[in-house]
Amino acid sequence: MQALLKAEFEKLFDEEPKLFFAPGRINLIGEHTDYQEGLVLPAAIPHGIYVAISLNGKNHARLHSIDFQEDFAFDLDGFSPKKGHWATYIMGMCSQLRQAGIDLKGFDMAIGGNIPVGAGLSSSAALSVAAGLAISSLNGILPEKKSLARYAQKSEQLYAGLNCGIMDPYASIFGDVNSALLLDCRNIEHEVIPVALENYQIILVNSQVKHTLAESAYNERRAACEESVEILKTAFLEIKTLRDASPDMLHELESLLKPELYSKAKHVIKENTRVIQAAHALRKGNLESFGRLLNLSHQSLSEDFQVSCEELDFLALKAQRMPFVLGSRMMGGGFGGCTLNLLKSSETMKFEQEIRAAYKERFGIVPEFIPTALSGGAKALS
Ligand code: GAF
């Protein structure tokens, strides 16, 4: 990809570019907890977005996407984002960097990636992080890593309309080889948790569906959590987010909360505990116990938080019933994308054959299998 990107850039812009890479992410466990100042356990993956860049001496940005075979240009002093368009993420980062006081110079950029788009692997966070890193280093200023993660989060919220948390860009920036990040989304600090998979492997199964309500439902779930917090606060003054609530507190106020608010708050509160238990299991090398927590997380996301869908439930439950699978769950925002599966490396063929046949028979769709690894974070390549 790097050589192709460089060659394409030189053909288009007749300059030698600098290259940058930012990875996508998986999340081992801790779903829909980040925007309630909770705990998450993500990791960067080898798949990601590559960016080639050079200054152009003008006041505009010229972009080329290899994957979409599309050009896009915008004036640095006046641009209007197009929701859903890939260039929006780059405009968003320019806007955030400017607001942070960085005086941006015009640039040319080519973008390419090897990360499936729309599969819930955070291709958009990877694009924002790669672009942010590239643009700021070209302008001679490297923002602090945490600030870069916040700019990417803000850019996604303001420009793409997803009221997301900080997990995805954070994992893309701080990812560590063979490790997951136990990230506390309250103080934005992480502990590196080494993950020794031994004879096991993580395989993502891409359901190949993305239900259209995904974004609005995500924002609704976040709003539901905020509504619960307002109610909980009336009895427990110390509660600022669901991070501060315990199962007992929630139980005490059950009659004040509509059932749909109660079940969603319950998911978030219990998921935070599962993250702590999962990190503990990984530190001890207890993959069986870690796998059981994955299954519980899926059940809670499906039944209590209600962000799964028929396809994801089918894939997770089918995998969970296989004797060589330690755990399986939907991953990310929900309503499509991938399941994360932890299984015996020696059984991957069998796993793929059985899941492929069953999923095809049930939905008429061929799933994509993505074996993955826990990798390093965003970096300059040249
Ligand atoms: C998406 C969001 F971008 C994250 O911030 C996080 O909330 C996740 O869904 C759910 O855990 O990836």
TrEMBL record:
Signal peptide: none annotated. Residues 89-175 form the GHMP kinase N-terminal domain. Residues 7-54 form the Galactokinase N-terminal domain. The keyword Nucleotide-binding applies. Residues 279-347 form the GHMP kinase C-terminal domain. GO terms for molecular function: galactokinase activity. Its EC number is 2.7.1.6. Keywords: ATP-binding, Carbohydrate metabolism, Galactose metabolism, Kinase, Nucleotide-binding, Transferase. InterPro entries: Galactokinase, Galactokinase_CS, GalKase_N, GHMP_kinase_C_dom, GHMP_kinase_C_sf, GHMP_kinase_N_dom, GHMP_knse_ATP-bd_CS, Mevalonate/galactokinase. Pfam families: GalKase_gal_bdg, GHMP_kinases_C, GHMP_kinases_N. PROSITE patterns: GALACTOKINASE, GHMP_KINASES_ATP. Belongs to the GHMP kinase family. GalK subfamily. This is Galactokinase. It comes from Algoriphagus sediminis.
